[in-house]
Known about the structure:
single chain; 439 residues; alpha/beta; Dihydrodipicolinate Reductase, domain 2; 3 domains; 7-stranded parallel sheet; 7-stranded mixed sheet; disordered N terminus
Amino acid sequence: xxxxxxxxxxxxxxxxxxxxxxxxxxxxxxxxxxxxxxxxxxxxxxxxxxxxxxxxxxxxxxxxxxxxxxxxxxxxxxxxxxxxxxxxxxxxxxxxxxxxxxxxxxxxxxxxxxxxxxxxxxxxxxxxxxxxxxxxxxxxxxxxxxxxxxxxxxxxxxxxxxxxxxxxxxxxxxxxxxxxxxxxxxxxxxxxxxxxxxxxxxxxxxxxxxxxxxxxxxxxxxxxxxxxxxxxxxxxxxxxxxxxxxxxxxxxxxxxxxxxxxxxxxxxxxxxxxxxxxxxxxxxxxxxxxxxxxxxxxxxxxxxxxxxxxxxxxxxxxxxxxxxxxxxxxxxxxxxxxxxxxxxxxxxxxxxxxxxxxxxxxxxxxxxxxxxxxxxxxxxxxxxxxxxxxxxxxxxxxxxxxxxxxxxxxxxxxxxxxxxxxxxxxxxxxxxxxxxxxx
Length: 439
């Protein structure tokens, strides 16, 4: 039995024509998602709904109470005009202190790198849509591989010691399953708006284990480095500037260019302690990153939300540039042409991502962090010759170590920069083949 009540995820499903029949298709969306803990007395054997004479059924472990939706009951059609109905997906995780670490997306680009780092320390359970793709990791590391397709309503059940998500979880399915079961959780995949919502979801569920949102650039590495530099200065900083150099030769996974989907949306940052709205791909600067003069422009990343709150930094900005000047030029030209405004929808996703997603044989991941305040500037540049997938995985690995250390995190929501000793993380990076250059 789990340590706590099961959590049922209420996921929007859309009904589409398929010849003379109707079939339910899962929709990955940020909207119309609710979660609720449920009591055993609400258990029901089957969820079934009817729509215009067609009967749709789905297995569920519990009936669903939706207090915010008056008149909506488990199994009823919701918002018929938009052909949307509610389906309960009863994923059940149980906390097992001796069990495996669950890596969701464990044989993808970042997941495989994380598996390499984690395998010497814990037994592993890897999940994804196509388990056969994890066969090499099974042979090499003795990991277990199972299917968990986050767009498939089939329930997933496992007993695990911790969970880390390395793929997008747009309806918070992994998050709610882990938090509801009191399982330590790390997430390294969310852009800012999705992380903001996930924080609210987790807080409402009152976590009984650490919940680490480590989706700042490179699995939270940027935030930890910033925290270490601020600690060197006695704990005070007026501003943090982060500059990322994207190597066009790097072996990147498709999720690595998710930020392309946000380039048509303005976002909020803090400037001098006050909220201001800025546009992506603006405010260019030339920054020396590991010896390369790189033109960088603004992008929306989660550390710009959290660092002003967690470390009381008045101004935080993150900018991105490319090893290829042509790539920078193409991206800015696309912005000028309005691609990221009129091409926001799913129809244009492949076009947006094609501007940057052309993974190569391998390249460096390079990040410069500058902290300014009284006494001048403190800087560090992080260089990972194994690329951004390895550096992101390393951030996830360090996050797992933290949430599994009884002295590292208390139950509840936390962030990478709140590590009790960020300087120790900075000192440990060379042990994993990552250079730290100081000026």
